[in-house]
Amino acid sequence: MRTGHWVFAVGAGAVLAVAAAGCDSSTKGSGTALTPSGSTSPGSGTPSTSLPSSPAPSTSAAPSAANGTNVAACADGRCEVAVRAGTAIPLPRSMDVEKVKVTAVTSNRVTVTGRIIGNSSFGTCSGSYCNTNSTNGAVTIVLGADSNATQNGLSLTVEHITDGTAIVKITTAA
Questions:
Q1: Cβ–Cβ < 8 Å for 141, 151
Q2: What are the beta bridge partners of residue 134?
Q3: Alpha-carbon distance 152 to 148, whole Å?
Q4: For residue range 123-144, what is the model confidence (pLDDT) as tens digits?
Q5: By three-state DSSP, how is residue 94 classified?
Q6: Is the overall model pTM greater than 0.70, yes or no?
Q7: Disulfide engineering: 40 pairs with which of 32, 55, 77, 161, CB 3.0-4.6 Å?
Q8: Quick check: 96 and 153 in contact, CB under 8 A?
């Protein structure tokens, strides 16, 4: 019985498949390589360059934000960005919230602070975890993944959190 190990490496836009023969005595030391299709090719001892007929197994990569890390896209009040602690998010004045900044991203929570423009403040929360606090014009919003908060004209949704980065979606509150 022939055994092998598959190693996939991605680089410069190409996939390189390398197969290494295991403990099969019929190929040990013979200079025969196991190709991705499982056949052997005699010769120099290097693997064949043919790729498997089935697609490579996918890993569950974190989703990406539509606007990447470009928070300037939020200046019109509509964006989806990847943020980390310390990220300032520009918003239009019409949202009645300014100086919005991500102050913390933990494994399951995102904390955002800002200042209320004007004399009134109103907000709502929904989702897996949501907490808002507004005192003396300062607002703090703490959200879990798949949670939403509105504050004045701002609607903030945390779509995903991983490795100190959160994907947030900003829209105008309805």
A1: yes
A2: 139
A3: 13
A4: 999 999 999 999 999 999 999 9
A5: helix
A6: no
A7: 32
A8: yes
